[in-house]
Amino acid sequence: MKFSISKKLHENRAMKLLLSVYTIFILTFITVNIFMKVEYFGSTLESVKSTILGNEEEFIDPMSLEDILTIVHTDLFSQLFILVTIASLYMRTPILQSVKMGVLGVATVAIFVEVFSFFTLYYGIDSLVFYLVSSFLLFNISMVIMSVHSIALLWMRRY
Amino acid sequence: MHLLAMIFLLLLTMQLISGVLLFSLNVGVLPSEIASYYLGSEYTPAKSMETLVKVTLPHLLGFGFVLMGVMHLYFFIDEVTQTKKIVLLFIIVVSAVIDLLSPYLILLFGSSFAMLKLFGFVSFELIITYILYVSIRSIIKKSLNKLKVKN
User: Fold this and answer.
1) Would you state the pLDDT for residue B87?
2) Does B44 touch chain A if contact means CB atoms closer than 8 Å?
3) Which residue of A11, A112, A129, B17 has the fewest C-beta atoms within 10 A of its own C-beta?
4) Within-domain flag for A141
5) In angstroms, what separates the C-alpha of B18 from chain A's closest C-alpha?
6) A96-99 contacts at long range (C-beta below 8 A, 24 or more positions apart)
7) At residue A55, what are phi and psi to the nearest 5 degrees?
8) Within a 13 Å sphere around the CA of B17, how many CA atoms are in the beta-carbon half?
9) Which residues share a beta bridge with A60?
């Protein structure tokens, strides 16, 4: 990833354009992914709980461990890919080190919490549904902040 | 950058664990279980070529990304000789190819290739685990040395 080592990134117009297009793709992916998750799990905490644990009254079967593992396995891959590429760009920006570390920390912790709460929810600790949903949203929000901030500063010729 | 590399390796470890769990739950860990997963049994239908391609396609991208990410971090470790790096790269590529191709061989030529699938999967996961371990250890070592120099 040449962009993570090249100095004065704004002077390279082609790279600036490429990174902007990449960010647009990632932002679109995040948006579509959120809509897909809402479609699959529902938009309330109760519907998320019902989708995972099942609901006898609504005739919803609970998810199997294989289903959960498949979601975790594929989501982890996309989260890993997005986090590493966007964060390596964000780390190049002239933003305060503590702010950069804070956002990166939130995004990383959110991934771990999401995976952990998914499994604990499956094993019956349904109070963790709030953590599952909020960690999913936190990760996506931090990615939006990182990518938009990085690209905005790049176009403002700040690094 | 050390921190980012560490996050990458930790998330990849989680991805690896979920992959192993998924394989053992879905496919099975015995050659007979692997054969019946692909060829079908009394209760389950055999997998179609289309299903296999649907699984192979995202894994091709994933394997490429994992290989590139993990190996390029591993190649930065000075203590490891160049020969060892090349040999490991060769072994990991061969095991990845076996892992991806063997389901097709099972479907086309029968259950005798189930052992090959198990071998491909286990060897790929073991080598990735080894490289992850060495890379994480090296990053921790470098970070500790940096801290010592600062103090």
Assistant:
1) 94
2) no
3) A11
4) yes
5) 6
6) none
7) -145, 115
8) 10
9) A55
Nearest CA in chain B to A67: B22
Q: Which two structure tokens, joined as six digits, stand for A153?
A: 């500063």
The shortest CB-CB distance from A80 to any of B3, B15, B58 is to B15
Distance from the Cα of A31 to chain B's closest Cα (Å) equals: 21
Residue of A nearest to B23 (CA): A66
Query: What whole-number distance in Å separates Cα of residue B10 and Cα of residue A80?
Result: 10
Contact of A129 with A45, CB cutoff 8 Å: yes
DSSP H or E run through A82: helix A65-90
| 8 Å CB contact of A65 and B69 | no
Residue A66 is nearest to which of B4, B11, B26, comparing CB atoms?
Answer: B26
Kindly give, in sequence order, each residue whose CB lies less than 8 Å from that of residue B77, ignoring residues fewer than 6 positions away: B134, B135, B138
Nearest to A87 among B4, B14, B25 (CB): B4
In a domain, A46, yes or no: yes
Check if B76 contacts A (Cβ < 8 Å).
Answer: no
The burial class, CB within 10 Å (0-12 / 13-18 / 19+), for A11 is exposed
Q: Would you say residue A41 lies in a domain? A: yes
Confidence of residue A69 (pLDDT cuts 50, 70, 90): very high
Nearest by CB: A81 against B1, B14, B65? B65
Asked if A93 contacts A159 with a C-beta cutoff of 8 angstroms, the reply is yes
Q: What was the pLDDT predicted at A100?
A: 94
Residue A3 in any domain: the answer is: no
Cβ within 8 Å, pair B26-A115: no
Per the CB < 8 A criterion, the answer to whether B127 and B92 are in contact is yes
Number of domains in chain A: 1
Domain that holds residue A37: 10-155
ipTM surpasses cut 0.95: no
User: Which residues of chain A lie closer than 8 angstroms to B19, CB-CB?
Assistant: 73
Which residue from A minimizes the CA distance to B12? A80
Position of tokens 């396609």? B57
Q: Is the pLDDT of residue A106 over 70?
A: yes
